[in-house]
Amino acid sequence: MAVTGASWLAASAPAPVYPAVGADGLAAVEALSLHPAVSLQASPRHASLLLVCGRIREADRPALRRLHDQLPHPRATLWWRTEPVPGFPAASCVGDDRADAVRAVWRRLATGALGSEADLLPDEPPAPWRGKGDHGQGGEGMTGGKPYGRPMAMTDEDCRDGLALDAYTARLGPFLPILPPGLRLELTIQGDAIQSARVPSPPYPQAGSDDPLRCIARLLPLLGLAGLAERFRRAAQGRAPDLGAPDLGALGRALRRSGALYAIPPGLGGFAGEDLRARLRRWWAQAEGADLRAPPGEGCLADLLPGLEWSEAMLVANSFEPEILMRLCRAGPGDGDGS
């Protein structure tokens, strides 16, 4: 009886969802996040529903399957605005009334009416780590090698002061919430600074996601202002003709009082004569009706990140309109599947 009561109590809570956003799915997921029946999670370990929204390119499907297996039981996968891809035998498609459909699946899952999905991948390390070192640890002697596919940190010169520290290469994306959907980054980090960056694949195209209020809302959580970000998303949603105009005056006062501009280092993310602070000011002026456009320019995101700290790099990666970011992330020679 206690288990049944706990199950019904869990079913009455908002559905814990981890979104895997594909092409043209970002604006829809941002709108869904405003519904009280859904709670978007920052980690798949805290979610029970994997919501796939938008078309997923073939190169990202293995990452999607690995993401699926990270969700704890009970779990289910929902497909919204896209068709299920091969390798996902249990396919549930979300209809037009998406929030109610997501909540209905969560209730069935929490009460046991819907069975939990099994793992899609075998329970084994993605890369073996044995047979090379003196004790089978995978490297020369006690160091070196790639334990379970992860390269070990080795000392290297620092690009700022020449101090020899351990350099570690990390691969991020394509479904990391703090990065634009689809973007893959390969960063070599030493101490607290990024030494080099590479873009193996660009972000997904996102039609209808260049609204200036939405652009500001994506930047604010990285500054610790998640509550203000939700207000901006609601204001962007309120621009629909049947919902009336949002109160931009109150929103502008909240933005100024938050100190968001002062939390951004001056000169950060300079591109085409416009740094991150200037982009934020331009977005707000556009939201108030100013006829402004992003300045034209050519460059590469990988060239903007070296020398930055982690928090600064994440701000820069999220400080461009989707169309401009795609242009900045066009793969260069040797960038793998990003072309």
Structure description:
- The chain is an alpha/beta fold.
- Helices cover about 30% and strands about 15% of the residues.
- The protein is built from twelve helices and nine strands.
- The chain has helices at about 1-10, 25-30, 60-70, 100-110, 210-220, 225-235, 250-260, 260-265, 275-285, 300-305, 310-315, 320-330; strands at about 15-20, 40, 50-55, 75-80, 90-95, 155, 165-170, 185-190, 195-200.
- Strands 2-1-3-4-5 form a five-stranded parallel β-sheet.
- α3 (about 60-70) links the parallel β3 and β4 (about 75-80).
- α1 (about 1-10) packs antiparallel against α4 (about 100-110), α5 (about 210-220) runs antiparallel to α6 and α5 (about 210-220) packs across α9.
- The relative contact order is 0.11.
- Residues about 330-339 have low confidence and may be disordered.
Helix content: 25-40%
Q: What structural category arises from helix and sheet content?
A: alpha/beta
Question: What's the N-to-C terminus distance?
Answer: 56 Å
Q: What is the strand content? A: 5-15%
* Nearest-integer average pLDDT: 85
Count of strand segments: 9
Low-confidence stretches: 331-339
Q: How many distinct helices?
A: 12
- Report the major sheet: 5 strands, parallel
Looking across the biggest beta sheet, what order are the strands in?
2-1-3-4-5
Order of helices and strands: HEHEEHEEHEEEEHHHHHHHH
- Evaluate the radius of gyration: 22 Å
**Overall 3D geometry?**
globular
